[in-house]
Write a structure and sequence with these properties.
The structure is a homodimer of 360-residue chains. The first copy, chain A, has 2 domains: 188 residues, TIM Barrel; 109 residues, D-serine dehydratase-like domain (Lyase, Ornithine Decarboxylase, Chain A, domain 1, Beta Barrel). Helix content of chain A is 30%, strand content 24%. Chain A has 11 helices and 17 strands. In chain A, strands 2-9-8-7-6-5-4-3 form an 8-stranded parallel sheet. In chain A, helix 3 runs parallel beside helix 4 and helix 6 packs across helix 7. The interface between A and B is large, with 64 and 64 residues.
Chain lengths: 360, 360
């Protein structure tokens, strides 16, 4: 990691290097343009109007979000083409909010069941929002099997909803360090089967959406027309371990201070689970790495304490500031209210995490 | 769990039952009064001025917080006796903030090293804030060994800081389901050794502070003069598994909606790691339980998806609202901006999570 921290941070802090961020945003945009695939980045990673504006300036065709609340924040920020890539349930106040959104932006919604589609119709969303049928391409989280996409699409269309196409999230690309390539192939193959299934039921498909940062390069080909990676803007320890980013492409760290060296063989930093999150894939040890301590690992977390096991006989002094590369950046960003933005090791801006929370 | 959800929630939601909360707050206060031990609850759990007011009304002598930012929120809310039970590093803007706090409230600060104490002195805090020496009683996170407490206290006092006493967190009470009793005994015994060590170095101890929700009942005895439990206000799956709360004393759940039943043998709810956190002790499987689904477990999490494995051939319908009892409530509260407060199954209030974030 070629970039460094300014000294005037108050830790723990969420710090982003502007040069690396812009390079990451630009690189993905150029690659998708070259493949002729639309880029609709997932904004759940950054939850930031500033980062979303960068993505738009580099040619993103719209944004992906996970919740109605996130859609509202980005709509208010001037983004007019939003896809809630989630099985949206239009109940308990969300119906009215979805109707307001659909009246102001081009809104598409995920659906993987007829009851959920019926709720959209009951909420008056037919004709104002479009739907994308979610397909399970191997993650087995949500989404119907490819061969069931056609019958569901036909039933949804019969309710009066406009079906634009199909989407998937090849999240099984995160399951092992060598999973991304296979998961990307699954996305392409099974979305193809889903498109065929829709065709057999008389439904034309104009949008075929795939995506995750690990699978985006492997799946950006026909029949896929759109990709929705999120994490690529910042990258993290997991993306590097999956082999889809190198450490020079990590744009975000949590800055922390060594607060205790009282217990031998370790230091305690002021970044715990409330700033690093507790996400850890089964195949990765620890909760982050510390470049300033020879890449030592954060081995355990309390809420405001992170324990870093060190080899050195002389630990760093209490008061030393260090960087932590977190395992998974999305939940980390969601814990902070703002980014400290750095250029050339100097603090130049503070960006709000505008859609922090907004879970409902 | 005898209480139920109102229907007009927008999920995922942080829901607290007022009756159970008040009973929990009152029970702990009565027990500590009976033991003659001061109760200084840890506000990192609730981060709420409303809950802190309840605790004060029930006789709490002050509040414990983990960060300077939390102290500022509770000071602004009228709490005038605050203990930052953390090895505070007075650098990078925190010095001035600590000085402002010390000028407006009775402020005590944790210290476990001489460099950290020197920073407090350099920041002009001698004479305005007091310090408590942190003692490691078995968790091996921060704090000095009991026998080193005296020398450190003497050196800290030599710098001009007033040493009030010693404190510990018997966090090893969380390590196994039967750990609380032993950890409580460790707190009492090793704080006793620390008091002796201070006495040998000529330092009188007026405050001896222990605490965690699992160890509070076992350690509320001489020489301990103060307890700092946090989680007891709400309880959670972990406290029940540790045998220090029963399920009728769980005051907080995350309300979630079934959003997908497309994959057989499971349902997907709209509470994932961004609303349940990813905390999981080694000895507990899963990320929460769902009373409405026969106590089924949340077996895996994405950011906005929780997978609940179910036995039933007929899964609950898409759109069904359920409660999730989270593993560890503190990081969960920190993900939400407000509590939905329920009395008798009816939504009666919304309380802000006023100190959400405020990590630095």
């Amino acid at each position: 990691m070629g970039w460094s921290l300014p000294e005037n941070l108050s830790t723990p802090a969420l710090v982003v290097d502007h040069d690396v961020l812009v390079a990451n945003v630009g690189r993905m945009a150029a690659r998708m343009r070259h493949r002729g695939v639309a880029l609709r980045p997932h904004a759940k990673t950054h939850k930031s109007l500033d980062v979303a504006a960068l993505q738009r300036d580099h040619g993103a065709t719209g944004l992906t979000v996970a919740t109605v609340g996130e859609a509202e924040v980005f709509a208010a920020g001037g983004h007019d083409d939003l896809f809630i890539a989630y099985p949206v349930i239009a109940k308990w106040g969300k119906t009215e909010r979805l109707a307001r959104l659909a009246a102001s932006v081009r809104l598409s919604l995920g659906v993987d069941s007829l009851p959920a589609a019926q709720l959209l119709v009951d909420g008056g969303l037919a004709g104002t929002a479009t739907v994308m049928v979610e397909v399970d391409t191997g993650q087995h989280r949500s989404g119907v099997p490819p061969e069931a996409a056609g019958p569901l699409a036909e039933a949804v269309a019969d309710l009066g909803l406009e079906v634009e196409g199909v989407f998937t999230h090849g999240g099984h690309g995160y399951w092992t360090p060598d999973a991304p390539a296979g998961a990307a192939r699954d996305e392409v193959a099974r979305l193809g089967q889903a498109v065929d299934s829709l065709a057999r039921w008389g439904i034309a498909t104009s949008r075929v959406s795939a995506g995750s940062s690990p699978t985006v390069l492997g799946s950006a080909m026909a029949p896929v027309t759109e990709e929705r990676p999120g994490t690529y803007v910042f990258n993290d320890r997991q993306q590097v371990a999956l082999g889809v980013a190198d450490s020079e492409q990590v744009a975000l760290v949590v800055a922390a201070t060594v607060v205790s060296t009282a217990v031998r063989g370790q230091v305690v930093i002021d970044a715990g689970s409330k700033s690093l999150g507790s996400d850890r894939p089964r195949w990765l040890e620890g909760f982050g790495t510390v470049p300033e301590l020879d890449g030592a690992m954060v081995t355990s977390l309390s809420e405001c304490h992170g324990i870093v096991v060190i080899d050195e006989r002389t630990p760093p002094r209490v008061g030393t500031m260090v960087r932590v590369v977190p395992n998974h950046v999305c939940p980390v960003v969601n814990l902070f209210d703002s980014y400290d933005v750095v250029v050339g090791g100097e603090l130049v801006d503070r960006w709000p995490v505008s859609a922090r929370g907004h879970l409902a």
